[in-house]
Amino acid sequence: MATTRMILGAIKKRSFWHSLSSSRHGSTLVVAEHESGAVKPHSLSAVTAAASLGGGNDKSSVSVLLAGSGPSLHQAASHAASSHPSVSQVLVADSERFKSPLAEPWAKLVHLVQQQGSYIHIIAASNSFGKNIMPRAAALLDVSPITDVTGISDSHTFVRPIYAGNALCTVRYMGSNPCILTIRSTSFAVPQKSNNSKAEASISQVDLSNFDEDLNKSRYISQTSQDDERPDLGNARVVITGGRALKNSENFKLIENLAKKLGGAVGATRAAVDAGFVPNDLQVGQTGKIVAPELYMAFGVSGAIQHLAGMRDSKVIVAVNNDADAPIFQVADYGLVGDLFEVIPELLEKLPEKK
Amino acid sequence: MKIMVAIKRVIDYAVKIRVKPDKTGVVTQNVKMSMNPFCEIALEEALRIRESGLASEVVAVTMGPSQCLDTLRTGLAMGADRGIHVESTSALHPLHVAKILRNLVENEKPSLIILGKQAIDDDCNQTGQMVAGLLNWPQGTFASKVVLDKEKEEVTVDREVDDGIETVQLNLPAVITTDLRLNQPRYATLPNIMKAKSKPIKKFTPQELNVEIKPDLEIVEVTEPPKRKAGVMVSSVDELIHKLKNEAKVI
Questions:
Q1: How many CB atoms lie under 10 A from the CB of residue B233?
Q2: Is the ipTM of this complex over 0.85?
Q3: Separation in Å, CA of A5 to nearest CA in chain B
Q4: Does residue A131 belong to the interface with chain B, where contact is any CB pair within 8 Å?
């Protein structure tokens, strides 16, 4: 006859084995986003970062968490399962609750999955989604998160920019598990599709039976839709940016035409967004988007510290400005003092067509 | 309804930062300090809500060494009704700040906490989210527009996100963090600076608020970012295209 002590003992043993098997499965959890049936590129950068935590050997095993509902979620799960050799498990939280990127249910989900999986690291990309939910999740887990990481020195030592990227801070995490990170996707390459016939990672459902019903304290109302025709500013190989010198939104068409000619994305300075020339999602800078394209061309941009913070890691920087003393010329690889209203049309005329 | 605003004293946004030669941090000696620009915006929003008649009191909170009182006085001069200074000489990470704010909330009971989205020194962008998590309050981060409905006890927040503007609706009490375009903060006028001198400031230590400052992060070193190779000036569009094609090979 089973006594209470025997039953409790059995339950304790089960959770012991459960946590052992979970940590064998994945010591790092990547909180990923998906869209149209695929894992988003910056979440794949997070997988790259997660894989590097094991020191580059195959021992690092990564679990990828996806949430939402519908067939596109399951398609994305398949994509995640074959996205990187280090991915050993994909966790799917299938519920309408996670359809919109509200911080409250998502942070609770991360908390729940951590309780189930006891990960050593939890990583997400440092985009507006990751920035919104990961610190909240860290607070629920009573740990200090390390955000916007650009370099991994070892499993608990990270580099991140401070003072708008004018200094780099190397910080060591000394707390208990989990170590929570958000990473700058421009610093971690999206894994290349490999032809290795590696077995696909397992895909399993997150047990949501203990997920606290939220009292509906927050509601997702709407989202302005992004222009899908433009290349994504965060990933584009070429970025053409305009500043306030463009004078109005009509003139910004010059920037758009040049971007189109070079197959690039359009960026803007804070001044141009504040003035209403372009919407906020084009802003490049300390508090806007961080970009690191092959080619960054800045027209009528003075080069304020806060703008440089968003583009200083670009491979080649070109600046065109009427003012020879504009600070942007100090970071530009090629600088041209001139009137952008003359230079851009001339470029449009003389540039070779995009291959 | 009471609004609590957290404000931080940071190196002024226009200062050119220098990394200390011993790599322990950046030079702060004789460097101009100011209220974090995002915190100014947070305080401005709170003041506007009070001025519209939807709130009765704005309490400004700052944490750190005694020099922080300068920033607090600026906040009072802008129009905050009362100030709270949590004095600490040890470094405070967002988790500590969040815990202190949570414990202050137990006494003050505000319906809204407004913070700047990030401090321009550490660029963390964590504190608001952490306070909201600790309190289990909903959060509206990176706010570009805030509309309060006092009767329904909810607030609608437009947020600046990667794809544009996202609108969320939150039940009060809630936490909001401010983005750049939410408002243009006012300057403190001289009469208000004088008035501020008699506004009350309450002092606490973290210990008095039952928060133990036990850091789980250690700064190993602070260094300069890699320097870019010096660039060249070109004199024509033709020369630019030539260099981009043949030298840089990006087109």
A1: 13
A2: yes
A3: 36
A4: yes
Bridge partner residues of B171 (DSSP): B154
Of A218, A332, A350, the CB nearest to B138: A218
| Tokens representing residue A124 in the block | 């997400």
User: Chain B contacts of A332, Cβ < 8 Å?
Assistant: 231
CA dihedral B231→B237→B242→B243, nearest 10 degrees, is 10
- Lookup: tokens for A213: 């019903």
Tokens of A307: 């703008």
Q: Under an 8 A CB cutoff, do A127 and B162 touch? A: yes
Q: Which of A103, A279, A280 sits opposite B139 (nearest CB)?
A: A103
Q: Over the stretch B67-96, which tens digit does the pLDDT of each residue have? A: 999 999 999 999 999 999 999 999 999 999
Give the C-alpha separation, B234 to A343, whole Å: 12
Q: Pinpoint the alpha helices (H) of B79-220.
A: 94-108, 127-135, 190-196
Distance between CA atoms of residues A11 and A19, nearest Å: 12
Consecutive 10-residue averages of pLDDT for chain A (355 residues): 54 45 65 96 96 69 95 95 92 94 96 96 97 98 98 96 97 96 95 68 93 84 80 91 95 95 95 94 94 97 95 96 96 96 96 72
CB A51 within 8 A of CB A62: yes
